[in-house]
């Protein structure tokens, strides 16, 4: 073998070192991307948890308000019934009075 050929075999080619550097850079980029995605996923999970808890709280408050509204509606029905029972004679009287006044006009 020629002396120049021998040196060429012993020393790594230039493009091989560039390839190794690119490989290291690529691995670093992948690592950073994975790490960034991991952080983004953690942030997203945290945001999802916060929204879930907020929704749960809103649903619970909504249920409380629905129960209060139902109680108020029941109370209103009872009061209306009592009012109609107590003042049913006035209702007939006011209707008669209204008809009499309009007939004379």
How would you summarize this macromolecular structure in one to three sentences?
The chain is mainly α and 105 residues long. It is built from three helices and no strands.
Helices and strands in order:
Elements: H1 3-10, H2 14-86, H3 88-103
Q: Would you kindly provide a written description of the structure presented here, covering whatever features stand out?
A:
- By secondary structure, the protein is an all-alpha fold.
- The protein has one domain.
- Helix content is 92%, strand content 0%.
- It is rod-shaped, with a radius of gyration of 43 Å.
- It starts with a helix and ends with a helix.
- About 6% of the residues have low confidence.
């Amino acid at each position: 073998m020629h002396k120049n050929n021998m040196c060429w075999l012993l020393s790594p080619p230039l493009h091989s070192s560039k390839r190794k550097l690119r490989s290291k850079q690529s691995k670093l980029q992948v690592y950073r991307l994975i790490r960034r995605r991991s952080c983004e996923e953690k942030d997203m999970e945290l945001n999802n948890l916060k929204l879930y808890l907020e929704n749960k709280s809103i649903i619970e408050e909504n249920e409380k308000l629905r129960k209060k509204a139902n109680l108020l509606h029941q109370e209103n029905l009872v009061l209306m019934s009592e009012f109609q029972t107590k003042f049913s004679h006035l209702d007939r009287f006011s209707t008669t009075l209204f008809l009499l006044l309009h007939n004379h006009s």
